[in-house]
Amino acid sequence: MSLALQFFIAGGIGLLLVMLVVGLWVTSQIREGVMRNSAATTALYVDSVIAPLLPDMRTSRELSDTVKRALDETLGQGALGKRLVSFKLWRRDGMILYAKDTALIGKRFEPNANLVAAFGGNVVAEYNDLDDDPESHEEKRVNAPLFEIYNPVREPWSGEVVAVSEFYEIADDFQTTLNAALWSSWLVVAGATATALALLSGIVFRGSHTIQTQRAALEAKVSELQAALSQNSTLRQRVQRASRRATAINERYLRRIGADLHDGPAQLVALAALRMDSPILLDSGSSSEQREAEIAGIHKTLGEAMREIRGICNGLVLPQIETQAVIDILRLAVSEHERRTSSSVALTVPARLPELGTSEKISIYRFVQEGLNNAWRHGKGRNQAVKAGVKSGRLIVEVMDGGPGFEPGKSEGLGLAGLRERIESIGGQFETLSGPQGTRLVISLSVEEQP
């Protein structure tokens, strides 16, 4: 799951628990507050009506019949009489001085906790929670919600609690008011909780989206880095292999050059040296014609040796190509081949090719030079062609001929092997395609198009 979804679930559960705790606490406070206010209001009304009828409770141990009749008439009239279920007037020792149920007058009961609290000067109220007191059987038979209030009766001049009035009031209106207050408090708490969850979720969802976007970008970068590392490792291994093969090929080149020099110019120079010791030149009796013929032969042999040395040097020495464009290098390689072999080569190039580094230029020149040499030697010079172009950000150079072809896997010579190593060492690709219709050598180098 995303961070936002995890927060929404965990935060929703946490805020729900907080809402329940706060809601229960608030409703309990509202319930107690409403009960306390209702009890205080009713107690104040009872005090204002009942207290003036009572005698001096400090000296009177019982109520007279006149006081009882006055209480009966007062408690049975008006709005209070309609809601009042029962009324008791308690003395501190637990004796009931007055009750609507006359059977309870004069009886003594053990004071309960509410009665004790009331004699301590507190107004005690309970809603629909009747105690198992023996004097409360009559109230329990009433099929209606009741509001029980213990109200201390104080002496006017001293404020001392001299009696406690206990009365039960039908609390239909109280229940309606309490339910409305509770519903309102729950709606406020639930609305505040939902608003807080929505605001926090919005912030977290936006942050989670940013994190996911950054994570995706980071994963993409990591993947690119891994791919680059893998590619670099592959290229490094290729370069190492190419370097080892290039070293071996260079040794083979040196051996071939040594063999060419030994078998060609060296033999001719040795022959010329032997002929310098010829009897014709050393014998004073030889005719001038014979001597001139021998000297001409020596000159011819030395000339052949020089031509072979120049041929070998022409294959080794590069022209100045560092400052030339790729198109000019291709034209130079083709023109040099045409001059040496007196053959024709079809050159196809676009109007412009991208610029390359010196290593790439040298590799292209050697590739065209070796490819055309092979086309002349092995392809009999038929249909020689050079083609260059750019495709998908890569420079493609091809050398083709119409010779009999060869099997690339087995007949690739030292020149082609060296070219392959040279091209692959600079990150290029080398491909040999050959068949009965001819041979095509292709190299591909990565370039950037210039505007």
Radius of gyration: 60 Å
Count the domains.
4
Q: Give the tally of β-strands.
A: 10
Low-confidence stretches: none
Give, in spatial order, the strands making up the sheet with the most strands.
2-1-5-4-3
Q: What fraction, in percent, of the residue positions are helical?
A: 55-70%
Keywords: ATP-binding, Coiled coil, Kinase, Membrane, Nucleotide-binding, Phosphoprotein, Transferase, Transmembrane, Transmembrane helix, Two-component regulatory system
GO molecular function, one term: phosphorelay sensor kinase activity
Catalytic activity: ATP + protein L-histidine = ADP + protein N-phospho-L-histidine
EC number: 2.7.13.3
Summarize the structure.
By secondary structure, this protein is α+β, with helices and mostly antiparallel strands. The chain has helices spanning 3-50, 65-75, 78-83, 113-119, 137-140, 172-263, 265-276, 279-282, 288-316, 326-341, 358-377, 408-411, 414-425; strands at 84-90, 96-99, 124-127, 146-154, 161-170, 346-348, 385-391, 394-401, 429-435, 438-446.
